[in-house]
């Protein structure tokens, strides 16, 4: 199984292979996490397709904006769950890549734990490449900035409290993009992020 399409890191499917045996549990954990991410994606994509059908009633080329309705309140939590789970998945997969490539060693875990953190952070940065999802995870999904605000967060607080929106002309639910006090966080689409990572990096999982 290929665990990273860009780095071309593989773990054999043969259960008798020593490399597969060494990392069998690591891979199983990641496969379980990938299934959960895919399930969240499928649920949001299904709602987007329903909205796409609704859009047809407005006429070709019409863009419709929706916010603050019951359906969007049910969609928004999935963005937060996805952001947290995705960051865990990416960083853990980064560590597994490092172990397979022998850049990291479990025998050094207790002696140099910072190496694992640093490696996983650099890996996640290379995978996400500036994607808004990382900042959303850090400012909202994992721990809301209002709980433990930093001085730089103050101008963002109101924007972070505005819920998900839907731009039907793009057939995507998007979170973010609202500006308050001259500050905002970039908007992002859960299904867009998932489809990009599936095609570009994690086809073996998704």
Concise synopsis of the structure shown:
By secondary structure, the protein is mainly α.
Overview of the molecule:
- By secondary structure, the chain is mainly α.
- The chain has one domain.
- The protein has seven helices and five strands.
- It has a three-stranded antiparallel sheet. Strands 1-2 form a two-stranded antiparallel ribbon.
- Helix 2 packs antiparallel against helix 3.
What kind of oligomer do you see? single chain
The strand line-up of the biggest sheet is: 3-4-5
Strand content: 5-15%
Largest sheet: 3 strands, antiparallel
Rg computed from alpha carbons, rounded to a whole number of angstroms: 19 Å
Name the descriptors.
206 residues, mainly alpha, three-stranded antiparallel beta sheet, two-stranded antiparallel sheet, 7% strand, globular
List the helices and strands and how they pair.
Blueprint: E1 2-4, E2 9-10, H1 18-22, H2 24-55, E3 65-67, H3 70-100, H4 113-128, H5 132-141, H6 157-160, E4 165-167, E5 172-174, H7 190-200
Antiparallel strand pairs: 1-2, 3-4, 4-5
Helix pairs in contact: 2-3, 3-4, 3-5
């Amino acid at each position: 199984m290929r665990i990273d399409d860009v780095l071309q890191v593989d773990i054999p499917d043969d259960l008798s292979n020593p490399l597969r045996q060494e990392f069998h549990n690591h891979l199983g954990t990641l496969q379980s996490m990938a299934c959960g991410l895919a399930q969240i994606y499928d649920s949001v994509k299904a709602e987007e397709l329903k909205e796409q059908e609704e859009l047809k009633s407005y006429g070709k080329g019409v863009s419709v904006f929706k916010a603050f309705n019951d359906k969007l309140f049910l969609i928004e939590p999935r963005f937060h769950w996805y952001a947290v789970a995705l960051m865990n998945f990416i960083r853990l997969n980064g560590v597994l890549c490092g172990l397979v490539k022998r850049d990291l060693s479990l025998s050094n875990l207790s002696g140099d734990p910072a190496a694992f953190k640093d490696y996983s952070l650099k890996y996640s940065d290379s995978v996400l490449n500036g994607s808004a999802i990382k900042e959303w995870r850090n400012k909202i999904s994992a721990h809301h900035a209002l709980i433990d605000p930093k001085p730089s967060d103050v101008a963002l607080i109101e924007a972070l409290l505005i819920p998900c929106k839907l731009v039907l002309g793009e057939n995507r639910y998007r979170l973010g993009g609202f500006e308050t006090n001259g500050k905002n966080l970039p908007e992002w689409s859960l299904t867009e992020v998932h489809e990009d990572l599936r095609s570009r990096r994690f086809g073996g999982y998704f």
